[in-house]
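Bug report (template v2)

What were you trying to do?
Predict the complex of my protein with HDD.

What happened?
Run completed; filing so the output is reviewed.

Input:
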Amino acid sequence: MSLEILGISVLWTFLFGYVILGSIDFGAGFFNAYSIITGKHHLITKIIQRYLSPVWEVTNVFFVFFFVGMVGFFPKTAFYYGSVLLVPASIALLLMIIRGSYYAFETYGSKGHKGYALMYGIAGLLIPASLSVVLAISEGGFISIIDGNPILDYRALFTSPLTWSIVVLSIVAVLYIAAVFLSWYANKAGDTAATNLMRKYALCWAFPLIIAAAGIIYELSSHNPGQFERILDLWWIFGLSFLLWIGTVWLVWKKKNYGLAVGLLIGQFALAFFAYGISLYPYLLYPYLTIYEGFTNEAMAISLVVVFILGLILLVPSIYLLLKLFLFDKDYVRGNRKNVKSNEKRGLS
Amino acid sequence: MLFDDPVFGSRVLTIITLSFHVIYATIGVGVPLMIMIAHWVGIKKNDEHYILLAKRWARGFVVTVAVGVVTGTAMGLQLSLLWPNFMELAGNVIALPLFLEVFAFFFEAIFLGIYAYTWDRFEDRRKHFLLLIPVVLGAGASAVFITVVNSFMNSPQGFDIVNGQLVNLNPIAAMFTPAMPTKVSHVLATAYMTVAFLLASIAAFKLLKGSNHVYHKKSLYLTMKMGLIFSIAAALIGDLSGKYLAEYQPEKLAAAEWHFETEEGAPLLMYGILDGEGEVKYEIKIPYALSILASGSPTSEVIGLDQFPEEETPPLVIHYFFDVMVTIGMFMVVLSLVYWTGIKRKWPFVRSNWYRWLIVLGGPLSVIAIEAGWWMTEVGRQPWILNGIMTIEAAATSSDYVGLMVILFGGLYLILGIGTIVVLNRMFRKNPVELELEQQEAIKGGETA
Ligand code: HDD
Ligand code: HEM
Ligand code: HEM
């Protein structure tokens, strides 16, 4: 494998991690807000908070990893994307700042202001929408190079059906992923009412998801025929992904084995996400920048890869510990952890 | 100006974001160490007060970390958005420490999450204490790596430019620049110092407001002692930073000192103003002190601004930033030294109200010193973004919307800053120390009974 491919694979994997973790985070915030409006607040808030509190910063790091790694492995992206993304990326940033800090203010500080919860929920849908615009831009056709500087054509971008189908998919995917995950989490917590509610949401969003995904492929056929061709060549990966989607929906429908359902869901998105990535190959920005032209020098690439491997050796066990304590610990998930037990022992010894 | 000059807009936005982030970043670097010290003392002395101190600091800390994370994310992304040409070059040479910083932070965030949510999960308290080690190391490493990047901007090396092409790239050499040792150690020492004094201000404030609880007294003594150690370290390393400047960025030192003519046995100017003709007025002159700061010997020659073309002279305003930083640094050394001696020797005035008010002031003053230090470093690098290689004009974005972003981000930071204070205040007022100590006693009493 060449260093270029290795670099982009690592970054794409981090982006995928962010898509999944971020979706759970954003979607959970939205369901929380929605349940306040519909008066089902008491059913799911606790579940959602118990999951979100210890992990949201970890989710954010995946995002930071992606853009820092991007500039490291492909410095030219800073030049091409930096200027043109000022507005969309700043909007996403502003929303992330509002969301992250108000989340912290809420949970750690004062509890339960409705207005905050609503803002938090809505911001959670707008962030994926504004970030996904970047994917639309990478398809080409919206940037022109004038006097050596890349210029973004906002009109073309916001009147393009491709842009809007990508935005719609991102929102639907967020809701679907979060609903399936939270069904599992609530089920594990033994909270039947919350499980049933989340399950209903999951089933609601399953079909819109497939329709939105098909819509993008259809739009690409006219927007970027070259890529459309490559997507057709990869039909079998998308087909597999579709089968996994059926599997998830079936399990959730039958109220069976939610853990497996989450596994299939991740598999489904992984396949589709990587197949889409492969179909973009070799472009970082169609048609101006490929991973080969944009790549950093060899010395930097090798040192980044070495650091990355060392970093993983440090991080994987740490993440495992985190998951073990908060995601796979039955007592924590059920909210049974109390000060009493350990305090008792301390008092005795 | 803000709306039709993207270079100016980018500068303003960078200044605002960094100046805001650095407050939280400093707290993020320093607080874990203080928590660790308090937790350790608590275990050693088997004193619940110190354990509670660690617990309450950690509780406040998760709020400031959250704001640190979001503003840091903003900073990281804005570097590419506002300075695309610089980041394209920097990505080739100095991406390694940026990448390392994320790892360090990741490591810290994971263990902080675990530490904060597992106060009652370990039977052996020492195990819970161990979780702090990665938090302290991760926070420190974050600061080290990001400061390495900044050192590179001040004394770039590790590459050559031949016909506009980057060649002979060496990412490791780019990390170990001449500016690195003094900068990294000064940043760490000042972060620890600032946080110690911030926590001391809180304790002193509580004592002033009528709570005479021994908890606050222990807290005040511990933090002032830490503050003393780190402020002395900060001043010593600050002196070394001056020597670094004299050798590698003499124009910055000369501008900070309004040192216009190269001379031997140069005096140090404190305060004063510049009149219209470039004459310095009302200054305090300390003979030979600049030569000592620059090289350690009172008679050595210090290069003045006469040696540099006008367009490469840094703004002379950095003189004030330098004065503010050094004055506060000296003041804090004296304040904490007198306090510490006074407690040992039982001088009554260190427990008086007016002295406690001075301690309350010390925390915010230290934060001001941090800001002043960074402004001096960064403004003093003008007109360069990469010293001697790339100017800010060449680095900035050409986008038309920077001015708008300045207003949006500026407004948001203002709200966040106020929000942090309000939330922290409410959090601790709702749950005062006295109440929490009682509850702790009650649990214990209930068990043994
Ligand atoms: C609490 C904060 C604080 C305090 C009390 C001091 N400093 Fe400082 N100083 C900083 C906080 C700081 C800083 C924010 O951390 C800087 C900005 C950039 C850097 O590397 O550190 C800095 C930079 C900095 C520089 C510029 C380095 C460069 O541009 O490369 C010099 C020469 C000094 N300091 C010297 C001193 C001296 C002689 C002090 C005597 C007491 C002192 N500082 C106290
Ligand atoms: C990755 C490392 C860094 C980069 C790329 C960077 C970049 C820049 C740039 C481009 C400017 C604008 C130049 C100007 O207007 O003068 C600037 C200014 C500034 N930076 Fe840095 N910087 C870095 C590190 C830091 C750090 C670690 C701090 C401390 C928090 C800092 C604090 C400041 C401040 C306060 C200014 C305003 C100075 C001014 O008025 O010019 N910088 N920085
Ligand atoms: C150009 C300057 C800077 C950039 C680009 C930057 C970038 C970042 C980023 C991206 C984060 C979020 C972490 C994440 O989610 O991965 C962060 C947080 C943090 N930064 Fe900065 N940073 C800068 C300056 C500084 C300085 C000067 C310090 C220390 C002296 C510092 C220390 C920290 C710490 C400790 C955190 C963790 C948050 C916390 O604990 O409060 N950073 N920074």
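What did the reviewer find?
Chain B touches chain A through 80 residues (CB under 8 Å). Residues 6-45 of chain B form the longest helix (40 residues).
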